[in-house]
Amino acid sequence: MNMSNKTGAIIVAAGKGERMGGVDKIFSPIADRPLLARTVEVFENCPAVDCIVIVLGKHNIEAGKRLAVEYGWKKVTDICVGGKERYESVFNGLKLLKDCAWVVIHDGARPLVTVKLIEKGLEEAKESGAAAAAVPVTDTIKMSSDEGFITATPPRDKLWAVQTPQVFRFDIIKEAYASSDKSSTDDAMLVERLGYPVKLYPGSYDNIKITTPIDLSLAEILVKGGT
Question: What domains sit in the chain, N to C, each tagged with a CATH number?
Answer without folding.
Answer: 3-134+161-224 (3.90.550.10)
